[in-house]
Specification:
The structure is a single chain. By secondary structure, this protein is an alpha/beta fold. It has two domains: 98 residues, Translation factors (Elongation Factor Tu (Ef-tu), domain 3, Beta Barrel); 128 residues, Nucleotide-binding domain of ferredoxin-NADP reductase (FNR) module (Rossmann fold), CATH 3.40.50. It is built from four helices and eleven strands. The strands form two sheets. Strands 4-3-6-1-2-5 form a six-stranded antiparallel β-sheet. The longest helix has 13 residues. The protein is globular, with a radius of gyration of 18 Å. The structure holds flavin-adenine dinucleotide.
């Protein structure tokens, strides 16, 4: 499996479209050997071929915790205006060979006593989903908020819902987006807040107070209620946002 240094030889085991612009890839060791373990928040450094003929490296966060399944899962957003790395990834088919640096974690989940608040935006869902899956498997409480443009553009929508996450869609209008001020407004000692969005890879949002896990909902505007006003059980619909639905 290991080529040189910490380079891994990987084979694409499956390619799954998650949205029109996002594909998930399951990667296995090329010779069937076990893959190195990692902690949630880690990413692979994948070698890509750029249109200029030069090899490059792109980071892709691991979306599923290291477990019994000896594989890595990543999801890649096609960036049409990018340098070609994501386009090259989107051209990969099942059986293709890849070279990648072993997982490295610059975005580790803080494991304190309080329930973490995980805030994801767009393709920034990948490391947060890994964290949420790990926390759920451990039976630990957490809060999970995921902001995207629309349901159609949302990767891992069902998985986030199944994990009790709250979805917020702004319909392409930032003024209808997630109201972070409201989200973070209710103080409760010890909450760890972790955020990743497309434009802010690996930039922890802040460390703010925590509360107990919030309800699962899908919102279509920025009117996510302040945490202190959230009901203890999930409402049948997101009342503050319902009038704004299109
Ligand atoms: C730690 C980490 C984890 C990541 N995890 C993921 C992940 O899980 N999934 C994922 O899809 N991506 C992830 N990324 C981003 C990924 O590494 C690539 O940047 C992405 O796939 C785009 O690659 P690209 O070569 O197509 O475009 P890039 O050239 O890297 O371009 C990226 C963006 O920058 C813009 N851009 C590029 N050049 C210019 C320029 N000259 N002027 C203005 N704008 C420009 C492009 O429009 C594009 O939107 C991660 C990045 C980091 C650092």
């Amino acid at each position: 499996m290991t080529q040189a240094g910490d380079m891994l030889a990987l084979v694409v085991a499956s390619v799954t479209p998650l949205t029109p612009a996002i594909k998930a890839f399951v990667l296995r060791g090329a010779n069937g050997a076990p893959l190195p373990a990692f902690t949630p928040g880690a990413h692979l450094g994948v070698q890509v071929m750029q249109p200029n003929g030069h090899a490059g490296q792109r980071a892709y966060s691991l979306a599923r915790p290291h477990g019994d399944a000896d594989s890595y899962e990543i999801a890649v957003l096609h960036e049409p205006q990018g340098a070609g790395g994501s386009a090259w990834m989107h051209g990969l088919k099942e059986g293709a060979m890849l070279s990648a640096h072993a997982p490295r974690n610059d975005f580790a989940l803080h494991r304190g006593e309080a329930a973490p608040l995980l805030v994801a935006g767009g393709i920034g869902i990948t490391p947060l989903l890994c964290m949420a899956r790990a926390l759920a498997a451990e039976g630990r409480a957490f809060e999970f908020v995921y902001a995207t443009r629309s349901a159609q553009a949302t990767a891992y929508l069902r998985e986030v819902r199944a994990l009790g996450g709250t979805l917020v869609h702004d319909g392409g209008d930032p003024s209808r987006g997630l109201d972070l001020r409201a989200l973070l407004s209710a103080p409760a000692p010890g909450r760890t807040c972790t955020s990743a969005a497309r434009a802010a890879w690996c930039r922890p949002w802040s460390t703010r107070p925590a509360r107990s896990a919030g309800p699962m909902r899908t919102c279509t505007s920025n009117s996510l209620p302040a945490r202190s006003s959230r009901p203890a059980t999930p409402p049948s619909r997101c009342a503050p946002c319902a009038p704004a639905r299109r």
